[in-house]
Design a protein that fits this description.
With about 775 residues, this protein is of the alpha/beta class. The chain is built from 28 helices and 22 strands. Strands 1-22-21-20-2-14-19-18-15-16-17 form an eleven-stranded mixed sheet, sandwiched between helices. It has a nine-stranded antiparallel sheet with strand order 4-3-13-12-11-10-9-8-7, sandwiched between helices. A two-stranded antiparallel sheet has the order 5-6. One of its GO terms (molecular function) is metal ion binding.
Length: about 775
């Protein structure tokens, strides 16, 4: 917008200053239109695409596939990172610790000593399917079946491998529902003493959900599963119901509600879900880079709070509060209750939301989320960014959390395994899906090296065949009519051998490059359709890679806007005011200048992020005081230098003062043209150098060797042209030699000091502004 206003005033000046009856008014109007359009650089879309595409390729090499490249800069603006728990932060390899017997308290009972009803629940209450000698389904259920040592057959029968338990046959499944938080199965068995089929129902689910469905349960039911959940275990309640000897038609008429009522309590299934090997390290890097992090899971709030504590989501000096549902009657109030139940605070404390978020760490369940939204929306918006755990949430509630964070002005990132997180992944600004069953890196590398070795052997075999064929041609003299011909073939074979070997090496190198390019590509069939980003590895380290590339792309985009804006302002001045003085560039000068600029833009777009995330945050857009102030300041410096040096050249160019300027004349080298060209190259080079950000978001200008050399080349070229060290070079560039008086009056050293001041003042001002912005966030 600033560029447009400046160009608008420049056009008015040109239109008034160039008022001459002998001039073609239509041509003048065309020139004014060109000035107005020049402030919108045509290369802008290309430069932005280069930066995004470079990040896209870098992410692919890291095993991250992106279907929506425009979201990469959003990753640099992320404020809050949201994570699913199971399969994302914790491993899918669940460890079954055991089952507590119905009356054994928290003690794990050995499997052979469990009641037969409990063993039947473990063996039959699942949604597993056997296909081609492989059991397919939920890792949790596969772990339970393996723990119980039962075998699943293709016809949905389960057979014990040990003990005297009867084989079971699964009749009907009521699959797990996120809203119901439970699943049930109808199965049957045939006793040894009878030919009748006996049917029974088994149920497993969240302990708090099944509590009211048991006929009898331990008095300390809540304390039992809460104690195990506080220790980080995943706890499921098990229920059993005998249906008796029925016909299949009678069984099909039984409703789910009837099956899931009047259950016999069979104990608690206790599992541990260890953290992934790199979850702590990656989460520490994310938290130290000034990002907020929270967990959105369907698991128990105590288990989720334990995982959040292990990953340092909570301040160790604060008490963790969970918004619990009232238990006694509908008249009870919702309360914030600590994990050890020693602290109780009303839903909306009298001290206000500031007291709650500053003194405690908060955990909210799905039911509590609905209450907060319906009771006091203002209070909910105030505490929302400070809630570290959302537990017992449905997929719709996960989506609701993400949308409310976005409504409050936060840029969100959601990471999940793509199952219950589809809605949240779609609505997040940056959605990252982790593949549930990725190909192990070691296996992939082994397969790659094996294939490479096989091709190397084949290539060597082909070389030997060629050599043997050539030698065999010389080993049969009756095929050769004379010795001269034989010697000629021998010489040709000796000269051909190094060529064949060189060709083989080139072919092997090409195959290696093709393999590497194939290794980093994610097949579309493997990628989650819900998320714009999909990692082919299950590690959350991909989050750090995406944020790094996002920050690098965002900073590159912003600095390109600044560079193009400054270049456009100088171009508008050159095409208007200086054009009236007959200043124009030759084709050679314009070509060289364009090539130098293209090289600088190319290497800026290929800037690489640093290996670690910085605590500082990049600016999110160009419409801020800092950006406008730096662009204006630099333009004023450039404008002053250009005007001053042109005036000095005017005083010495006596011929230009006496002759009338012919705007339509062919290009002719002059002192003013040489001055403007040399200064414009210096200004544009300094624009790239000053506005290149570098650390802490990307490699510095000295580390970006391509950019450093592309800036050093025009600097050296300008120095040589200004000093007149190579007169033949000056002629090729269609310039004139600068007299000694011109060089003295140009005060080049003062110009260097101005540039040095810009180098020092502007980066330091940015760092101060950036620190203030980080502290405010």
């Amino acid at each position: 917008m600033t560029d447009f206003y400046v160009s608008y005033f420049v056009v008015i000046f040109l239109f008034i200053a160039a008022e001459d009856e002998s001039r073609n008014r239509y041509k003048l109007f065309l020139e004014c239109t060109l000035i107005l359009t020049s402030v919108v650089p045509p290369e802008l879309p290309i430069e932005l695409s280069l930066a995004v595409n470079h990040s896209l390729l870098a992410l692919q090499k890291l095993g991250i596939f992106c279907t929506e490249p425009f979201r990469i800069p959003f990753a640099g603006k992320v404020d809050i990172c949201c994570f699913d728990k199971t399969g994302t932060l914790t491993s899918d390899n669940l460890i079954v610790e055991g089952v507590t017997a119905p009356n054994s308290g928290v003690e794990i009972c050995p499997y052979p000593e469990l009641p037969v009803e409990t063993r039947r629940v473990l063996a039959s209450c699942h949604s597993l399917v056997k296909m081609e000698d492989e059991v397919i389904g939920d890792p949790l259920e596969k772990a339970c079946l393996a723990y119980a040592e039962w075998v699943l057959t293709r016809n949905d029968s389960v057979i014990p491998t040990k003990g005297n338990d009867l084989p079971l046959h699964i009749i009907h499944r009521y699959h797990f529902s996120s809203s119901l938080k439970r699943m049930s199965v109808i199965a049957s068995y045939i006793s040894n003493n009878s030919a009748n089929v006996t049917y029974f129902a088994v149920t497993k689910g969240a302990p708090e959900i099944l509590k009211s469905r048991f006929v009898e349960k331990p008095k300390n039911y809540d304390e039992l599963f809460q104690k195990m959940s506080r220790e980080g275990a995943r706890v499921l309640a098990l229920g059993y119901k005998e249906l008796g000897v029925l016909t299949l038609q009678e069984v099909k008429k039984i409703s789910r509600s009837e099956i899931e009522s009047g259950l016999v309590f069979c104990g608690f299934l206790v599992m541990t879900c260890p953290l992934k090997s790199d979850s702590k390290r990656v989460m520490q890097e994310i938290l130290c880079s000034n990002h907020k992090a929270l967990i959105i899971t369907g698991d128990n709030p105590l288990t989720a709070a334990h995982v959040a504590k292990e990953l340092n989501f909570f301040d160790p000096t604060k008490t963790v509060l969970i918004l619990n549902e009232p238990k006694n009657s509908i008249d009870d109030e919702w309360m914030w209750i600590s994990v050890d139940r020693s602290v109780r605070i009303p839903l909306v404390p009298l001290q206000g939301s500031n007291y709650l978020v500053s003194s405690f760490e908060l955990c909210v369940t799905g039911a509590a989320l609905n209450v907060l939204l319906s009771v006091n929306r203002t209070f909910f918006d105030a505490i929302l960014p400070h809630i570290k755990v959302f537990a017992r949430t449905t997929p719709k509630q996960k989506e609701l959390v993400i949308n409310n964070l976005k409504l409050n002005g936060f840029v969100t990132l959601m990471c999940g395994d793509g199952t219950n997180d589809v809605g949240a992944l779609k609505h997040a600004d940056v959605g990252v899906a982790l593949l549930s069953h990725p190909l192990p890196a070691s296996k992939s590398k082994a397969a790659t090296s094996e294939g490479r070795h096989r091709r190397h052997i084949n290539a060597s075999s082909d070389d030997r065949k060629r050599k043997d064929h050539i030698k065999s041609a010389g080993s049969h003299p009756h095929r050769i009519n004379n010795a001269a011909a034989f010697q000629k073939i021998k010489n040709a074979s000796s000269s051909l051998e190094p060529r064949v070997s060189e060709t083989s090496k080139k072919l092997e190198k090409l195959l290696k490059e093709m393999e590497e390019s194939e290794d980093v590509q994610v097949r579309l069939g493997d990628a989650s359709v819900a998320a714009p980003f999909t990692s082919k590895y299950s590690s959350i380290s991909s989050i750090c890679h995406i944020i790094k590339q996002g920050r690098c792309t965002l900073v590159t985009t912003l600095q390109m806007f600044k560079i193009l804006a400054l270049n456009a302002l100088i171009l508008a001045y050159s095409q208007s005011v200086l054009y009236l003085d007959g200043v124009k560039f030759s084709d050679t000068q314009a070509t060289v200048q364009g090539l130098l600029l293209a090289a600088c833009f190319f290497f800026i777009s290929r800037s690489k992020p640093l290996k670690s995330l910085a605590k500082q945050r990049p600016l999110s857009n160009i419409f801020n005081i800092y950006t406008l102030a730096t662009i204006s300041t630099q333009f004023l410096v450039h404008f002053f230098v250009l005007v001053y040096l042109v005036q000095q050249a005017h005083e010495l160019d006596i011929l230009h003062e006496t002759e009338k300027v012919d705007l339509d004349a062919k290009f002719k080298p002059s002192l003013i043209n040489t001055t403007v060209y040399v200064v414009s190259v210096i200004l544009q080079t300094s624009t790239f150098a000053v506005n290149y950000h570098g650390r802490p978001f990307m490699e510095s200008i000295t580390e970006n060797k391509g950019l450093l050399y592309s800036l050093a080349l025009p600097s050296v070229m300008v120095g040589v042209l200004a000093a007149g060290l190579m007169p033949e070079m000056t002629v090729k560039f269609e310039l004139v030699s600068l007299p000694a008086e011109v060089r003295d009056r140009f005060h080049l050293w003062s110009f260097v000091i101005l540039v040095a001041m810009v180098f020092i003042v502007i980066p330091s001002a940015y760092q101060k502004f950036d620190r203030n912005q980080t502290d405010a966030i």
